[in-house]
Amino acid sequence: MAEDTIARMLHDRELRVTPQRRAILQAFSGRSDEHLSADEVLSRASMAVPEIGRGTVYSALAELTELGLLASVGNPEPVRYETNLDPHDHFQCRLCLRLFDVELGGRDLGKRRLPGYAIESVAIRAHGVCAQCRDYQRGLSAGAADVKRRATVDESGAGELTCVAVASPLGGLVLAASSTGVARIAFEDHADFPVLAERARTRRGPVAGRRRLTHLGTTLTEYFDGSHAAGQDAVDWRFCTLEAAAALASVREIPYDEPRSYERLEGGLSAFDCGYAMGSNPLPLLIPCHRVCRGSQRPEVYVGGPQRLRLIQQLEAG
């Protein structure tokens, strides 16, 4: 929300334009799918005013709602706040728990006659799975299927890499790296596994790539032995788009056995494209896409297949 708009709104209601009120209102972008909890407002507002307290945010939200600058949705908790003050209906996703502004006929129902009663407002909320969560699942499934049908690395691409074949609790793997960083980790049923495995038999490729693979081997061994530390191996992102690389890079920040929902990842991808990037992840294990969920729902599709996914989840739940 623009600063001059905020100042005008507050002045119109005879409120001082304090840094705290300004930060709280600026936390809202006004998108139709944005319904923020008080804690989410606090998190955003504290970026502008680090010293802002929880009590200040809660009292300001109540004040701004009472004065008609915000609307509140939700009963019981959590109450969520929005800038759309017009009468409208909502859809709540049972997975990601987000609210979306939709048209379900609530305004028309408010015009109906109800003998003996005076209808002042009608609020309809539908529950189910939102379009974005469904798109993410479709993208995830498409990516996981394509990585088995289409080679991520072709013969010309493999010629620039150092490759090594290793055994693991998940079956055979081929690891590939350039001088820049780790470029590919392939399972046995991936379409490019044969090309990379053949490259591994030649022992060709940059010497720096071999050093990177030695370090990666240590990272994977420690992971399968139960280490919770994130791998610090450098990554060569050549086999994915810049947008997918940004999303996958943010996946590396997800702590061990602490799933994070797809809409919280960086990269600006659509829900489908984000799902596709996770499903076709060129660096499984090093980039823990198995920790990306749909809200409350753990992933059921994995770049390495469902059996490997179950083994990884059991390992991390360990």
Task: Reconstruct the topology from this structure.
Layout (H helix, E strand, L loop, with lengths): L2 H10 L6 H8 L9 E2 H11 L5 H13 L4 E3 L6 E3 L6 E5 L5 E4 L3 H4 L15 E4 L2 H19 L5 H4 L3 E5 L6 E5 L4 E6 L5 H10 L4 H18 L17 H10 L8 E2 L9 H9 L12 E2 L12 H12 L1
Parallel strand pairs: 4-6, 10-11
Antiparallel strand pairs: 1-3, 2-3, 4-5, 7-8, 8-9
Walk me through this protein's architecture:
- Helices cover about 40% and strands about 15% of the residues.
- The chain is elongated.
- The chain starts with a helix and ends with a helix.
- The chain has helices spanning about 5-10, 20-25, 40-50, 55-65, 105-110, 130-150, 155-160, 195-200, 205-225, 240-250, 270-280, 305-315; strands at about 35, 70-75, 80, 90-95, 100, 125-130, 160-165, 175, 180-185, 260, 290-295.
- By secondary structure, it is α+β, with helices and mostly antiparallel strands.
- The longest helix has 19 residues, at about 130-150.
Concise synopsis of the structure shown:
This protein is α+β, with helices and mostly antiparallel strands and 318 residues long. The chain is built from 12 helices and 11 strands.
Task: Label this structure with key terms.
about 325 residues; alpha+beta; 3-stranded antiparallel β-sheet; 3-stranded mixed β-sheet; 12 helices
Tally of individual helices? 12
Tell how many strands the DSSP assignment holds. Answer: 11
Low-confidence stretches: none
Radius of gyration (Å)? 25 Å
Q: Distance between the terminal alpha carbons, to the nearest Å?
A: 46 Å
Strand content: 5-15%
Order of helices and strands: HHEHHEEEEHEHHEEEHHHEHEH
